[in-house]
# Entry
Amino acid sequence: MKNIDSKGHVTGTSIYIDDIPTIEGTGYGVVFDSPCAHGKIISVNYSKAKALPGVIHIITHKDIPGENQIGGILPDEELFASQEVHFQGQPIALIIAESEQIAFKARKLIEIEIDKKTVITDPREAQQKGQLIFPPRTFSLGNTKDSWKDCSHIFEGKVDINGQEHLYIETQGAYAQPLENGNIKVSSSTQGPTAVQRAAAKVLNIGMHTIEVDVVRLGGGFGGKEDQATPWAIMAALGTQILRIPIKVILHRMDDMRMTGKRHPYSADYKIGLNKDLKIVGYEVTFFQNAGAAADLSPAVMERTLFHATNSYFIPNVEATAYSCKTNLPPNTAFRGFGAPQGMFVIESAIAYAANELAIEKQQIQKVNLLKDGDEFPYGQIAEGVGLSPAWETLVSKFNLKATQKEIASFNKTNDAVKKGYALMPITFGISFTKTPMNQARALVHIYSDGSVGISTGAVEMGQGVNTKMLQIAANIFSVSANRIKLESTNTTRVANTSPTAASATADLNGKALEKACNALAKRLKTTAASYFKVDVGTIQFKDEQVLVNGNTSDVSWNQLVDMAFLERVCLTENGHYATPIINFNKDKEKGHPFAYHVFGLALTEVTVDCIRGTYEFDAVKIVHDFGKSMNPTVDRGQIEGGLVQGMGWMTLEEIKYTKEGRLLSNSLSTYKVPDVYSAPKQILIEPLETEGTDMAILKSKAVGEPPLMYGIGAYFAIENAIKAFNPAYKSTFNAPFTHEKVLMALYN
Amino acid sequence: MIEFILNDKKVVTNKPTGSLLVDLIRYDQHLKGTKIGCREGDCGACTVLIGSLVDGAMQYINVTSCLTPIANIAGKHIVTIEGLNMVNLSPVQQEMVNESGTQCGFCTPGFVVSLSNYCLSENEPTQAKSIAAIDGNICRCTGYKPIERTAHNITDLLLNKDHNNSIKWLIDNQFIPTYFKDIPQLISNLSPFDKVTKAHKLVGGGTDLYVQQPEVFEEIDIRPINQNANLRFIRFDETTCILGGSTTVADLAQSTKLQKYIPNLLAYIKLVSSTPIRNSSTIAGNFVNASPIGDFTAFFLALNAQITLQEDRESRAIFLKDFYKGYKDLDKTASEIITEITFELPTVSTHFNLEKVSKRIHLDIASVNTAIQIRVKNKVIEHIHLSAGGIGPIPTYLHNTAQYLQGKKLAPTHIKEANAIMQAEISPISDVRGTEDYKRLLLRQLFYAHFIKLFPSQITLTLLV
# Structure
């Protein structure tokens, strides 16, 4: 089934926040933010701004009736800075005016005096100064200290990984409106409607029940709207609470880039030991996560870095420690992969370094250390349904790896100024929120008396096709056509206490809840039919909007049955609730079974490097991937292709730059480049692995949102492989992204 | 007052002529299919079509409406996504659905508009052109592969297109709504735009001014240069070429004659911004903008172009290389405009080349660019012009390096020595586009690339490094 939103998209009729028809009397909010990265606020003079005609009000921390606090995990982040500022771009006030233009003009009239303090942008420096968001954590398996004696080769090194700007094309935004009795409705471009509702209630000092958060869809999220859609929505709600008028806050692009956090940059130290058979015996790694100025989701992101520190390899002795370092950058946040990509990049770098030093190919080490079922992860879970070695064999045969290697070698022999390279990148990604209580969801299903169906879940549609998958589930169970089913907006009044749409788990969690609700309704309707036909309920089926008895089409249609049930006062509404079974995690021991299952796969990346200019083009990425039993191959393929290219962007051309003073230099689309149509690999081939799937996944169709992003890591090592063909003296620095600049410097150093 | 046709309706507006088309479309006309992603022409979510009536027929281009002042749409036909919608999906829309070319959907209208422009184009459809048609559209869900497949399918559908009666064929085949046939008549009925204005701010394509300082122009009336048809021409004399001051980059690309003199012209143009930007931006604007990394400035410096500056009735001509006095400091008064750009046409024995490297190969600002014009006879460099950008405060004509090479034998040793001279002639700084060390190395490499590309049998990379 095609994405059910696609018709609205291609006609431009899909509605995003700024497309909601403007309500009379709307005030427009523009955020006034800190011009410096760290300091004490001496004074802020709003008088000139307030005097500008058309300015309605300027909201500061003094106007907050509740707590000036928006930290989701730790209470360490103010909505509006009160005494101190901790990053450039930190909100200080919201200017509300009759138009956005007036609000922008007013912003320029605000005078602020700040007593500047020392700025830290480097996570290692923060760690040395004891600036941590929360205490460090360590995951361990076996005993690394004892393992080194069993190693023939031991290598140590350092790795640096830059962040990534989400660059959802729809910027952050929210639109709040007053309802009667002091209630407020907020339309928000958020992945976490409940997070917005909960935080807004705290700041506005009102009950959650008085705030309705509604999300139709997002123009891209990628994690950037999991936690960080919240402040703008609260600001709009706060403005509405104070002024009793509708307030719209849509961030301009440069405001968005300056004020919001990104994928976390990391620095890391590793020590890796291999025996003579190239088996990795011991691995020690220390991560320095650049959390930015507040916790945001950093604790959870850091945790996932630890979970995925060994990527797709079994290593008997592991010690992985991570520090969440407090710096004066915008609080970094969720981004597709959620810390796992950084963890994986470090171990891939360690393996690449070992291979360099041993003068062998990286894949020789990768291959002999692949995880297999029964192996223990450093966090205690036992691998199950993880077939990396078969995936490796599939890739080798399906895509004829040997021929590719041969072609590349002969190409490099005959070309002096252009070199080709390749890399293999296995991934293994755990599915579930690592905070166990978040693994729950609800779905509300109405069957209307005319037989049509309305579905509400906690899932937010942001392009990943979750609504399409939800519709498929209901359509399959009821056997009604897609146009009889409507996916409602995600709304906290209809589905409460939701987890954010994140962790690749949304289709599983909400889908399972929906499945339960639909099955319960189907059972009631079948009971009605059974009593009408005077047969056993087990003989009733639905097919193409007809009722079947013992496999034979009856004269009762779906519509008639629904009508019949309604007249018999059968409840045609159901709320399904699902909580993932089995999973658990003990943080004291750092052991447990945190994931419902793992998704795995392998990518082969081929690149051509122009050794005169230091530029590159990706010839192909060939992937074997574990979809389980994909319930929507079209949507899932889109997720693989999109995730891959986004990951490649992070590894190649996307480069975030801050000055030492904490000012963002890559602050617009002209200075921060994401892949365009020409940057995508010329060819992307995807081969589904014949796997069983798992009952923990919806319809055995495994989660697909985040895992493919990490195939993009192969791009870095493929480039490196090509550079080595040109410059044998090249020494890897493991400093991502591999920009054209770094490539040229590597070719000639 | 400005009159234009928006989709199938006439619009009359009294907004300041410097205000932006995107805001008029979204907030005055309430057509919300045109999206705002960046307001700097870099994402393509706000792409619309501008149709001009030329010799009785409509010609369409796609532009980013976030950088288009409404002064530039007077008397034109503006087509938004809503203006392409019909009862059924158009083939462009249908293929996008069939190939699952949409994910979050925010960029989708822009892609559909650009691909529809590709259908409206009078050029022969090819797979490469179908991809080039979307070179200004960014999809952050990075679903480019399905969009590529969409573009390829559309190309197949256009193979039977009647190029002599393009609009009719497209209407008959339901690519565009039937109202398109009435547009020439509607346009002819519009009152002409009153160009006599007291406005002082001059705007050409606006593709840089509106990125840098939109607030300066949004609320005022402007003096549009692009609307002056008299300044939009490409003329050839026996040995020279003269471009009018409002010649756009796209005009340059359309000149088949110029392509004969500069064989790789289209490849160079492909490296510069994107189709929608090239449709609006002028060559003269690139000069006056005075960006040290202006691609066309480097290009025309190496052609040793002259520019004609005019103020009221007075005009004067100077060499482009003498135009730049310092960072953004020009030999030009506030009200002088460039009316002509003149350069000698390369001869058969003259070679020309442009090199550019940026963070992203396409739709990006250069880290370093350089252009060369060189004539070699009997292995001796008879004549050379050399320019570079991104390596100093102004677009730079590399006098010393060129002077050194003049009369030298074309040999690796001389090229290497020239690089040493060039390194002393430049003063790059570290910024978001690269460190100083990188820019120095990169310019060396691009300088070498000129020779490797132009004289492959004599100069190779191995001989130089």
Summary: The first strand of chain B starts at residue 2 and ends at 6.
